Amino acid sequence: MNFKKIALLLFVSLLLMGTVCAQRNVSDFQVDGSYSQAYSGPYNALFLNKGHDTGVTIYRYSAGDVDDNDAYDDLIHDDGFEYLTADDDMQITKNSDNTVIFKDFDHANHGVSEVIEVNGERFIVVFWTKNTSNVNDADLSSQLNQFNQDNNVSPIAF
What is the distance of C-alpha 106 from the center of its chain? Predict the structure, then answer.
């Protein structure tokens, strides 16, 4: 092989490697260190306290259900779209900044959510708390804003 062919092969290899490395996983996001990991997979659930009544969940924005055969069925829905779509069990209030305030009557929790885009891939970010906790939506909105600053992202229209 001559030098030009080797150089071209190396250049193409570097481009392909950069494309592979650019893909984001849900566990790649920076979240306040006081949260502890509970579940990782197509979504990532983190709890703020040992009572597991406040947390953050990051979902891939994808059609279809996520496998829900885990120990957190009573806390986590099948997929993140539930936090963006109103129905009989979910009250949704969409804000002008592309965030959502939700009240989940079925699971007795409430919180804030958003859709973000990183490297062409969308994610649904949900900060939630059980209705029995002393955490309010303003606290969760503040945590969501901090998450956005830490990860250099902002909510997009959906």
Answer: 21
The answer on pLDDT for 110 being more than 50 is yes
Which of 102, 112, 118, 100 has the alpha carbon at shortest distance from 154?
Answer: 118
Query: How far apart (Å, rounded) are the C-alpha atoms in residues 108 and 103?
Result: 8
Measure the CA–CA gap between 116 and 135, rounded to whole angstroms: 24
| Among 12, 13, 42, 15, residue whose Cα is nearest residue 27 | 42
54 and 47 in contact (C-beta within 8 Å)?
yes
pTM (predicted TM-score): 0.72
pLDDT in the model for residue 61: 80
Residue range 85-100: average pLDDT? 94
- Phi, psi torsion values for 119, nearest 5 degrees: 50, 40
Structure tokens at 155: 């909510």
